[in-house]
Amino acid sequence: MPKVSEIMESMEYGPAPEDASAVRDWLRERGSFGHFIAGRFTRPGVTFASRDPSTGDELAQVTQGTARDVMKAVRAARRAQRGWGAMPGHDRARFLYAIARTIQKRERFLSVLESLDNGKPIRESRDIDVPLVVRHFYHHAGWAELAETEFPGHRPLGVCGQVIPWNFPLLMLAWKVAPALAAGNTVVLKPAEYTPLTALAFAEICAHVGLPAGVVNIVTGDGETGAALVRAPVDKIAFTGSTEVGRGIARAVAGSGKRLTLELGGKSPFVVLEDADLDAAVEGVVDSIWFNQGEVCCAGSRILVAESVAARFEALLRARMQKLRLGAPLDKSTDIGAIVDPVQKDRILRLIDRATAAGAELVGGAAAPGCFIAPGYLKNISPANPGMVEEIFGPIATLSTFRTPDEAVDLANNTRYGLAASVWSESATVATDLAARIKAGVVWVNCANLFDAAAPFGGMRDSGYGREGGREGMLDYLAAPVAPQRDPAPSEIVPAEAPEESAGIDRTVKLYIGGAQKRPDGGASYAAQDELIPLGNRKDIRNAVEAAQGGLAKWQGLGGHGRAQVLYFLAENLAQRRAEFAGFASPAEVDAAIRRCFFYAGFADKYDGATVSAKPGHLCHVQPEPHGVMGLIAPVAAPLAGFMALVLPAIAMGNAVVAIPSQDRPMAALTLAQVLACSDVPGGVVNIVTGPRDDLVRALAGHDGVSAIWHAGLGEGLAEVQRVAAETLIPVWTPQPRDWSGPQAQGREFLRAASRTKTIWLPYGALPAGTGSSAY
Amino acid sequence: MERKNPGTDFRLDWFENIQVNTPAAERRATSLAARRSLKKEWQAAWLLNAVRCIDLTTLSGDDTPDRVARLCAKARQPVDAGQLAALGVEHLTTGAVCVYPTMVAAAKRALRGTAIPVASVATGFPAGLMPLDLRLAEIRYALDQGADEIDIVISRALVLRGEWAALYDEICEMREACGSARMKAILATGELKTLTNVARASHVAMQAGADFIKTSTGKEPVNATLPVSLVMLRAIRDYRDQTGFAVGFKPAGGLRTAKDALNWQVLMAEELGRDWLRPDLFRIGASSLLADIERQISHHVTGRYAGAHRLAAG
Question: Which strand (E) or helix (H) includes residue A565?
Fold first, then answer.
């Protein structure tokens, strides 16, 4: 050990190890772990090692969960669910509160265990992960208490299967378990194979607080165990992890009736404008891609910087990077710890190699012995470079430039992902504009990687769907009240050979695309309702999606008030032309449609976002945004009311739709097309394609330009859509068949499904702390 | 000691576009203290280094020559000699002693035979609201009394009114009056309020030739804080990048505990580098801080916490 006088010359930091003895004692006492099922630990089965990635040392043996283990856990969860779901919210709140308190009391233990198992620096597990875990359980204790009043009539989904990743093991557990339990569900959770230990420690806490047996079940294992859980008879699957695995889960769940939320990968833009506080932005990079070894799904990994400040920014970035300390995760002075596993380290290094082979220049980013990779970034990198396109999931950013804010938006959105974004500008005008235009579920203005239990988190595009946190997150674990009915399957398509005899002039019905009547591409028709109905095909869908994309800007530009006026006018014209629907829809249906126009005109400027109580000094705004282009598949029954029940909330929120009317009774929708045309609904906002429902839906689900699909039918057609949408990762909502004229066929449930939330963080404060600023 | 900053012409374009994002500065300042930890020998060494950098200060209306002499004795021997010996450290003194102009002579007498410089506040400390000629005369008086370093205060009004050129001219005149003596420019950041003001004022002071920029007089409602210091250090870094000149930094009035001393040193090391952990580029304006460091050192050596009565008064 150097002498004090020597250190006074070198001014080195020296070692500052966190004490791990309590954790090591616990691991020694526990020996091998079984699963936690029905309130007890099972005897260990076939086990595998969980290791400390910084040393490679074995920490514990945990059990490889079999399909039988999973079934046992699901049965336990099922048995427990009735009682747990029926329990007064206050009683569930007490349990969640007890869990929060107990975690708080064991903060140090859990932080050390997390850092040992995952390799993340103790500073991060201690100051970020575990406090957020505590925050999550407190927040959701509140939702449990308030669920009955805040979500009247809603019911828990039942048993939730939850599969979580290794990058934030305990925090992802909290994000999954807390809302599920608060809503009255029971869970079977599978932690990642690299990092199961804090989940097992959490199981002990559940037992310690007396949580009823079976409410929380933990089954450890690898991807096979996860797959078994996905196949098991559960009511919902919630998954956080890679896009690749998420797709497989979506495929496996298709047609099962299970709810699904997916929080997948990302390649989030980090946009530095010319008027940004560059030092603040550089520190933002440290909090983004150089946080948690870059193993962060929402990391701002694509740095886009204004050309005019790019040179200075890079100089500051490089200098800051050189100050980061790579080292032992348990050392309190470590900034960047160990990559979770040698497999992951290899994956990162291979991707870096591919990026440099494709012409990018790597700055920093050297591999070190053991599971370590120094922070770095790729520069001179082209848009198609694999390092620019693929999620690296390591401490390596990309650095490229833009000229103007609109180019920044284009580059930011030039990705298959849509999880998060970070925008740096001292201009509120510019920053809020970019926040609105960047396609992401979370946007951090002048900050990065901020999380809170009240702030919904989740993505779009290949980053998945569903939200975790706040009211939105709760709704993903609840079912809205509905009295389901049956919807008949469509009849066989009968190709129409020749026009039937008719007394007067022929009536020609056409598709409605881009505000105009269009002949079907295939030039064919089918017979329904004594008419020749256009037999739409894949190309008609393509044309309709393009028309819808073209109609979006104008429609959204109208704003809620403008759209409301159009919907009122539509109601007026429907009332005028009531007679035209005779024979196609009952008068009651027409009345329902007219009323529903008023209903959604009323809501068009009232389905608002909220500013949620996240952190003091931070505006945290959650706003519903339209998906964009939606594909709507109307029920077979109720050809007008059912059709309008889907179209109206979708367009009220600012979406443009491609709607497929009742295959058997399309005339009401085709008649409606004429009313739309004379009601100031801009061309392209509603597009109507008739024809073989299941073929058309498959085409919709396979079109990347479609951002959401509603399918009001059931059966194999729905399953097929879900299978196709598993590839495009388009969320498919299935409003259960119901009385389409009744009050249960309208309301917030529909508006919520017609939108997705964007959470925008904006820290504020002109004055530093202690000088009287209201922010602090 | 050698002066390192000759100053530059007035360059408004070097700082007029600075916009400091306050929440981000605070986030950095908060996380910085949690990102580095110093234990055992390293902690002791860093604490003793802080002692080396202290401008041991008394700036009270009731100062007397004897009180100043007692302070100077403490500056000569800031930590118990036996404990220093136990740590193998020799010749430890504080960085300087800092007093009012009328106490400079007493301090010089008391420090005779040492290399410890005497710093004098001047220019109408603490408010600076005196005619410029009187403020300049005060600098000359303090130098005449034997001061080695001059801590001037800037005109806050010029900052708040955005009169940067006038501020530059005024500080240049003070710089000239200081001659070869080291000049520290006190920005009184607690009265400039915004971090953007702090950054801009830092640049003006450096362009006018300040050898150090210093946060506070110790008399403002808010004195040295980590976010304010962070912003000043980044200004020093930018100025170094612009000119190649190294300017020192002196936080004053907010550092009371050994933990503060460590936090500020970590800030210096992380933002500017280890060169800024030496007394030629880093000073801490403090009076009560030393006592807490002594207690920590005593604990390191003996394993016990010492009562205040066991430590030599300053």
Answer: helix A538-576
Q: Which amino acid is at B249?
A: F
Q: Does B89 contact A1 at a Cβ distance shorter than 8 Å?
A: no
Chain A residue numbers touching B270 (CB-CB < 8 A): 323
Residue with tokens 């580098």: B273
- Mean pLDDT of the region A235-239: 98
Q: What is the pLDDT of residue A732?
A: 97
B22 lies within 8 A of chain A by CB = yes
Share of chain A above pLDDT 70, in %: 98
The side-by-side arrangement of strands in the sheet containing A36-37 is A40-41, A36-37, A216-218, A186-190, A159-163, A236-240, A259-263, A464-465
- Asked whether residue A501 carries a pLDDT value surpassing 60, the answer given is no
* DSSP state string for B159-217: HHTT-HHHHHHHHHHHHHHHTTSEEEEE--HHHH-SHHHHHHHHHHHHHTT-SEEE---
**Angstrom distance (rounded) from CA A489 to CA A691:** 14
CA distances from A208 to A110, A212, A590 (A): 15, 11, 59
Q: ipTM for the complex? A: 0.96
C-alpha R_g of chain B: 19
List CB contacts (< 8 A) between A127 and chain B: 31, 34
How many of the other CB atoms lie within 10 Å of CB of A766? Answer: 14
Q: What is the pLDDT of residues B129-179, one digit of tens each?
A: 999 999 999 999 999 999 999 999 999 999 999 999 999 999 999 999 999
Confirm whether A263 is a catalytic residue: yes
Note the maximum CA span of chain B: 55
B36–chain A Cβ distance below 8 A for any pair = yes
CB contact under 8 A, A768 and B195: yes
The string of DSSP letters for A676-687 reads HHTTT--TTSEE
Amino acid at A733: W
Contacts for B21 with CB less than 8 Å, ≥ 6 apart: A277, A280, A426, A446
DSSP class of residue B277 equals G
DSSP states of A282-300: HHHHHHHTTSGGG--TT--
- The reported pLDDT for the residue numbered A775 is 37
pLDDT tens for each residue of A25-56: 999 999 999 999 999 999 999 999 999 999 99
The predicted structure's pLDDT at residue A776: 35
Mean pLDDT, chain B, as a whole number?
A: 96
Q: Do A280 and B88 touch (CB under 8 A)?
A: no
Contact list, A332 vs chain B (CB under 8 Å):
36-37
For A89, A199, A388, the CA distances from A242, given in Å and listed in that order, are 34, 20, 17
pTM for the model stands at 0.96
The three-class DSSP label of residue A249 is: helix
Interface with chain A: mutation pick from B13, B21, B271, highest number of A CBs within 10 Å: B21
Q: Which of A3, A335, A775 sits opposite B88 (nearest CB)?
A: A3
Domains of chain A, earliest start first: 20-264 (3.40.605.10), 269-455 (3.40.309.10), 511-760 (3.40.605.10)
Provide the sign of the torsion angle of the four alpha carbons B80, B85, B87, B89, taken in this order. positive
DSSP three-state, residue B292: helix
Mind listing the domains of chain B with CATH numbers?
12-38+101-282 (3.20.20.70)
